[in-house]
């Protein structure tokens, strides 16, 4: 595939395709075609002038860039093709003048479809047309005439070269019919062999055979080569390539050329991409092109972070299964915000490209760009998760006494951490550890009671017998059991508080000694803080407990 000779024009094309509305893009397409027709040989054109002619805007970028007429002709042709391909398909009934398909245009000008596609990269405008539910390249006279008028000699020469007499067509079909009887023959191989014998291009021979098969389905030489492939066949082609089967072998098997196989691969690949969920937190700065360099820059203090990483080592008493968690240092607030911003920005770019992705017309470079963006976002997510894994360990240790299964609790907490990374909004200014801790503890508050209940059912297995048996406990036993259960619930809620808040609540309520609670003044003297500070911490802790109690349906009164 041809590439732009100047990065400036490539960047301009990408900006127009991604961010310009379709009506404005169609107008720019016409302006580009007019500019291409006006180019004079052996002349140079300033980039800012070119950009103004196309977009009606004179940028500050590339003030000294001057482009030769030859290179500008090449790049404007690619720009026209890229703009045309990016437009949404127009229903054929909404076009106010006759529309010719690629095949019809080929017959009218007596040139091959490959020649027309080559002309499209040189400035011939073909619009995406929706006909009978399928997308086609359509040509209308108002947009084709300027190109044909300015390339009369080229069109006439191609027409003389490609025009084929009826006698030649009959000879091609006669030879092809004879070769088609061979069991191992296929359209591409037959086309090449006939082309060598008659001195014609393989593409012209193949088109002649396919055109005959299309108009005479009952006498078709290769009936399987003209109809569309069904979804199962496309999936089979995709899976076969992944298993290492060559494109040539698949082309022979399915009676297609290599280009058709490539299109099938891209279609399946695009469909699989679109099926993958892509959630992210949007921020208005993502649409500001001038901020892209700042967002995509390296993490703040990256060198210092790498130096600290090289010195990381696990504590001596760490479990062998947790040794790998001590390989990543903690992130600062600025580093954390930068990574979350960059991760969501990459997903935002991928999402915008996916919105314009049509599986049946997907291009390899577009698919690779989307996949690259998603891989980069995933790599950043892995860093954020790795840097916060020790947070899950610390919270799981505080709750492991309730389930006696630390590693299952750790696994459950890791799932909550992954979800928290996806849902965290960095723009609010909060530290991620605060948000993640709350998400993990909220999940534990739901999963731990369920785990205890399941374990108890597994151990007994006779709840129906217990429910039917006569209750012989005394009132005193019921009171003690009820009090013990309430104490257990309160102690479980206290686990969600900070250590200092938890200690204040215990001392204030006398939970440890069983006696009356201590005064604020005594608690402050014991903890080395003022009476007022004790009161503030107590109020804050009680608010947290009430919120948790409402979720757990525990009565604190």
How does this model look, in words?
This protein is 65% helix and 4% strand. With 557 residues, it is mostly helical. Helix 9 (166-180) packs across helix 10 (187-198) and helix 17 runs antiparallel to helix 18. Among the domains are: 1-87, no CATH class; 284-450, Four Helix Bundle (Hemerythrin (Met), subunit A) (Up-down Bundle), CATH 1.20.120; 475-552, Orthogonal Bundle (Arc Repressor Mutant, subunit A), CATH 1.10.10.10. The strands form two sheets. The chain has a four-stranded mixed beta sheet with strand order 3-5-6-4. It has a two-stranded antiparallel sheet with strand order 1-2.
Explain briefly what this protein structure is.
Helix content is 65%, strand content 4%.
What is the number of helical segments per DSSP (H or I, 4+ residues)? 26
- CATH C-level label of the domain at 284-450: Mainly Alpha
Query: What ranges have pLDDT less than 50 throughout 5 or more consecutive residues?
Result: 465-480
What is the rounded distance between the termini? 75 Å
Biggest sheet strand order reads 3-5-6-4
Strand residue content = under 5%
Basic shape: elongated
Largest sheet: 4 strands, mixed
In CATH, the architecture of the domain at 284-450 is: Up-down Bundle
Number of strands: 6
On the 0-100 scale, what is the average pLDDT? 80
- Estimated structural class: mainly alpha
Name the helicity range: 55-70%
């Amino acid at each position: 595939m041809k590439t732009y000779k100047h990065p400036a024009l490539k960047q301009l094309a990408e900006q127009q395709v991604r961010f310009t509305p379709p009506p404005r893009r169609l107008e720019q397409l016409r302006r580009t075609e007019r500019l291409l027709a006006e180019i004079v040989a052996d002349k140079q054109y300033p980039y800012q002038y070119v950009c103004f002619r196309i977009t009606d805007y004179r940028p500050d970028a590339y003030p000294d860039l001057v482009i030769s007429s030859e290179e500008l002709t090449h790049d404007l042709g690619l720009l026209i093709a890229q703009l045309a391909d990016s437009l949404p398909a127009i229903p054929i009934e909404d076009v106010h003048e006759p529309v010719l398909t690629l095949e019809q245009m080929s017959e009218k000008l007596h040139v091959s479809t490959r020649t027309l596609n080559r002309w499209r990269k040189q400035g011939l405008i073909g619009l995406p047309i929706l006909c009978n539910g399928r997308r086609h390249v359509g040509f209308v006279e108002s947009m084709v005439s300027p190109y044909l008028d300015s390339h009369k000699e080229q069109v006439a020469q191609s027409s003389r070269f490609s025009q084929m007499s009826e006698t030649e067509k009959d000879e091609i079909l006669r030879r092809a019919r004879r070769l088609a009887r061979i069991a191992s023959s296929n359209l591409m191989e037959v086309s090449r062999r006939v082309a060598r014998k008659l001195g014609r291009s393989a593409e012209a021979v193949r088109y002649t055979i396919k055109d005959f098969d299309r108009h005479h389905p009952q006498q078709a030489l290769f009936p399987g080569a003209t109809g569309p492939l069904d979804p199962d066949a496309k999936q089979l082609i995709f899976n076969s390539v992944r298993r290492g089967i060559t494109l040539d072998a698949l082309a022979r098997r399915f009676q297609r050329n290599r280009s058709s196989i490539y299109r099938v691969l891209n279609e399946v690949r695009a469909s699989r991409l679109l099926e993958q969920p892509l959630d992210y937190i949007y921020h208005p700065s993502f649409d500001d092109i001038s901020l892209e360099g700042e967002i995509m820059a390296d993490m703040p203090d990256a060198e210092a972070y790498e130096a600290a990483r090289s010195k990381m080592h696990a504590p001596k008493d760490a479990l062998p299964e947790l040794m790998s968690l001590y390989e990543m240092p903690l992130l600062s607030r600025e580093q954390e915000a930068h990574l979350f911003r960059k991760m969501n920005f990459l997903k935002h770019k991928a999402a915008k490209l996916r919105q314009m992705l049509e599986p049946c017309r997907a291009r390899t470079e577009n698919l690779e760009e989307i996949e690259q963006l998603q891989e980069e976002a995933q790599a950043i997510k892995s860093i954020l998760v790795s840097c916060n894994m020790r947070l899950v360990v610390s919270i799981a240790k505080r709750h492991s006494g309730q389930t006696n299964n630390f590693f299952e609790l750790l696994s459950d907490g890791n799932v909550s951490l992954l979800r928290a990374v996806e849902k965290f909004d960095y723009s609010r200014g909060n530290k991620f550890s605060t948000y993640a801790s709350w998400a993990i503890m909220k999940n534990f508050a739901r999963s731990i009671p369920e785990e205890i209940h399941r374990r108890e059912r597994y151990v007994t297995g006779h709840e129906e017998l217990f429910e039917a048996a006569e209750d012989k406990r005394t009132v005193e036993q019921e009171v003690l059991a009820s009090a013990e259960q309430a104490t257990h619930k309160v102690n479980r809620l206290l686990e969600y508080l900070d250590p200092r808040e938890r200690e204040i609540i215990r001392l204030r309520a006398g939970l440890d000694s069983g006696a009356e609670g201590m005064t604020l003044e005594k608690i402050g003297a014991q903890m080395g803080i003022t009476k007022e500070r004790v009161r503030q911490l107590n109020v804050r802790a009680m608010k947290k407990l009430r919120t948790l109690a409402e979720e757990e349906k525990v009565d604190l009164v």
